[in-house]
């Protein structure tokens, strides 16, 4: 997904106020335009804008006024995070006057889950997406960097900047450009994270380490620029492709621009303000240069900030700017400056591109496979066909299309045979057959279930959770492994046969001829209708009765009895739910294998224990014998004792090793059980959703969609208090608070480094 292409996306967010400058700031109903007017009677204003027009109109991607944190995130950040999963880099920057709400937008309130900002929401989205994309494996790493007075600081350094008195320059955080990788920060620590809660922990930790100060406009003013980065790498689990994609998501909270007179800064804070204003002014110059396509040189290297952001400004990245402004009249000049910056940023071009890479090891494997195929082709060429025109190259699009047409003609009977030309052609023919079967299956499933359920929804009420649970266990006990496609197709064919039989039965019930066979069919049918709960076993398409039935001609749809929920579940498992169903089977197969290993190890341990007992009792006997009068027992009995002791020591070692192995395998069993449970729950819940939707008319589906939209827009206060993300947020915050308290008690003080002279 490409979130924004062409130009940088720009939004303006107005900080809520009871004293909105009505008449001076106007937000148009289109939600994209802000007009700003200057009063002609204001002396100060007239001085500052001498010779310029007295009103400005700014048209942006969106004007965010009185909008919740959730909506701001959804409009600004959500598409970029989604894009990151497709391999696009993304950057969101908050820019504006001090106190206008940049940190509130980016990090949000650390005390309130509902008011959390972009960073925690992005982490939530990332881990939810990872859970959803079961076909991919992901690795996520994060880093958090601060630029304070032109010095780069690692907010997540393994050695906390609070403890470390080494000057940051000596700790070696340097902006560098590497061929093929662009700008990298050498020395910045990257932290692998495996869960939302892990990541939130690090976010709170970094937030605690930031430099803040207090001045007239903001009690908690960030005195630095802050760059939070998430590095995501994803690889397909299903395709053995060498390709994989990476992306970097940067969330940038810039320090606030400030008028020194207004903030009343002095001393250290004055120095900070000077650095902040200087770097923002360079940022502005860089943006001007980027927006002007005639400029050949862009002064990225003027400051650490612009250098570090080089790839994010007009690079291959989806970039979005949030301009944070006040809505009050007294800040109109600064608001105007921010809006001009936003407009310039809007003119900067971006060229988002997917970061696709090749895994060399997998590529070698692929080439080796290719070589084997080519060799086979050669052997066919030489031995079977003796045909000079055998193709050794991969098939072209045109050849594949031709094969598809041939297969279609073969299937509809207009072509009697397909002649073999090469292994690749044979493989492509098989693939086309498979495709045709799958399409037919999908059609069958949808036609049968949707139309029948629609007709008689009330009759379909078995509790699938229970019947599914039993079925699943039965499969597991039967040692179910991953079903091959052909196996699935056989099951499918048998299911169809069973269904056809059932529809025939139903037909006979209403039009019975009174013959014994007809009666029997009637009984079967009524028995099925009276059963409120149908087990999987009863419906097992492989049961002998079903297999012995000759395939009956398919009755017209209106005579078919509606499939039971359990039957629909079977269809679901080979149709839309086939992926999760096959993962479940795989996991169950692994679980069974591990359980049998546990049994085997337990038996071995028992056997070793038996031997140990035996050796010990022999040794005991010898000891007793030695204690007896000498004439009864000869002295050479000492000799076997040495051998027995050696054997005993070996047995004990073996016993210990087996125990360790058993312990490990038991842990694996626990883990596998957990996975199987998760898959099972997911299969059933996905089926429930599918089943509900399949039985709806198009109008009902539309209504359901509208209702689900409504639910999403409910205020967050209505989220269940135990919503997992809220819990993670709460836990991580509490842990950070504890660390903060410990540090406060032990007298830690943030060492603010003197910046190197520039
Ligand atoms: N949209 C908003 N809704 C509610 N409160 C807000 C909003 N924007 C800002 N605030 C509040 O205003 C105060 C200042 O906001 P914040 O610290 O985010 O400003 P800033 O632009 O990051 O300032 P600085 O550049 O000085 O760090 C905070 O108390 C914050 O909670």
From TrEMBL:
ATP binds at residues 96-103. Residues 544-556 have a biased composition (Low complexity). Keywords: ATP-binding, Coiled coil, Cytoplasm, Cytoskeleton, Microtubule, Motor protein, Nucleotide-binding, Phosphoprotein. Residues 737-748 have a biased composition (Basic residues). GO terms for molecular function: ATP binding; microtubule binding; microtubule motor activity. Residues 453-473 have a biased composition (Basic and acidic residues). GO terms for biological process: microtubule-based movement. Residues 7-348 form the Kinesin motor domain. InterPro entries: KIF6/9_C (IPR056524), Kinesin-like_fam (IPR027640), Kinesin_motor_CS (IPR019821), Kinesin_motor_dom (IPR001752), Kinesin_motor_dom_sf (IPR036961), P-loop_NTPase (IPR027417). The keyword Phosphoprotein applies. GO terms for cellular component: microtubule. Residues 452-572, 737-758 are annotated as: Disordered. PROSITE patterns: KINESIN_MOTOR_1, KINESIN_MOTOR_2. It is found in: Cytoplasm, Cytoskeleton. The keyword Lipid metabolism does not apply. Belongs to the TRAFAC class myosin-kinesin ATPase superfamily. Kinesin family. This is Kinesin-like protein. It comes from Pleuronectes platessa.
